[in-house]
Design goal:
354 residues, two-stranded antiparallel ribbon
């Protein structure tokens, strides 16, 4: 039976990074103030195709992802299927070795439902493996034209939006709008990851224009960290994994500035209110759709188990980049620590990547 520990998140991130940075990026003018800006939720609705962005693009330098990064994702807990007799409501850590057969199957099904709810369906993975979990939800949309995708997106069709946000032939501004719309609809995984890639790429362009950390760079890094914190509060570390990828790339000489050192302590202290503004605007947009505030959307029990696995992956892939992270310690310190369950998972994987 398929292990509950799902591998490949970093592969997906690497693939998304590759196409996003190779694509043209819209040019951003530098702000006239140093105040940290939050995401403008009023501009997140995908409209008709005629109204979509037609601004000229500039090309950001391609950031090449180390091939070794993908290889590290092949590790997973070295466990054989066992049955300790626990049920899904008991205190357990590794489903494959602790749950009874029927509860193990239930955990896998709940995991698929959680992935669907948080938008964790990768177009890259589905194209490579049409039988991937939840692939059937987006397959009908993969070959649709841009106009057809947008027609579905106008009706808040999440699967059309997921394809729209990830398809490399769609211009970057429209992918960004689709990702923001998905966040309004309650998704976190792929949408937040894509938005972070957009923000960091814009920060990269601004930094390279001036060869300095200008206010525009600070704005995009602040937005990035707000997305990271928002994802963690929803028990989804995907945004954290994406952010740490860029931190690691900087230390390996593949990325020009260090996202960890862009904001001062004072600016970093504002991220909590920055994230609250983001949440307030999401709730405002959700109210217009007669959706409840995001805090009222229940996080299922399986999400907390999946959170441990994803956090273990983050510690395995990024090790001291996470445990010593200045920004994450300030925003969400528990993510830099290893809970007993995270330690248990890592003990099955082996020592964390150095």
């Amino acid at each position: 039976m398929r292990a509950f520990y799902i591998v490949g998140t970093a592969i997906v991130i690497a693939a998304v990074c590759a196409y996003f940075f190779m694509a043209g990026q819209p040019q951003s003018s530098l702000p006239t103030e140093t105040e940290l800006e939050t995401v403008n939720a009023d501009s997140t609705t995908v409209g008709n195709s005629d109204a979509l962005s037609t601004s000229s693009d500039v090309t950001a330098d391609s950031i090449v992802t180390n091939a070794d990064q993908a290889e590290t994702t092949m590790y997973q807990p070295d466990t054989n299927r066992a049955d300790s007799g626990k049920n899904i409501d008991d205190d357990w850590c590794i489903a494959n070795t602790e749950l009874a057969d029927s509860d193990f199957q239930l955990a896998q099904e709940q995991k698929r439902e959680w992935d669907l709810a948080r938008g964790d369906i990768s177009l890259v993975v589905v194209k490579a493996n049409p039988d991937a979990p939840n692939a059937d939800y987006i397959q009908p949309y993969i070959e649709l034209s841009k106009d057809d995708l947008i027609a579905h997106a106008k009706n808040d069709d999440k699967y059309a939006l997921l394809v729209l946000a990830q398809r490399p032939d769609i211009d970057s501004k429209d992918r960004e709008r689709a990702a923001k719309q998905l966040v309004i609809l309650g998704q976190t995984s792929q949408p937040l990851s894509l938005l972070i890639i957009h923000e960091i790429s814009q920060a990269q362009v601004a930094y390279q224009k001036e060869n300095a950390v200008v206010p525009e760079v600070k704005k995009h890094v602040a937005n990035t960290l707000s997305y990271v914190k928002y994802g963690l509060t929803r028990k989804d570390p995907t945004a954290l994994l994406t952010y740490l990828l860029f931190v690691k790339q900087h230390h390996e000489g593949q990325f020009v500035f260090d996202p960890e050192s862009v904001l001062s302590d004072e600016e970093l202290s504002r991220i909590d209110s920055h994230t609250q503004k983001l949440t307030d605007m999401l709730d405002s947009r959700r109210a217009k759709r007669y959706l409840p505030p995001i805090q009222d959307v229940e996080i299922p029990a399986i999400a907390y188990h999946d959170y441990d696995y994803e956090l273990a992956r983050a510690h395995h892939l990024y090790d001291t980049y996470l445990t010593n992270s200045r920004t994450i310690k300030a925003l969400y310190p528990e993510a830099t620590e290893r809970s007993p369950c995270v330690e248990t998972i890592l003990s099955h994987v082996g020592s964390a990547a150095k």
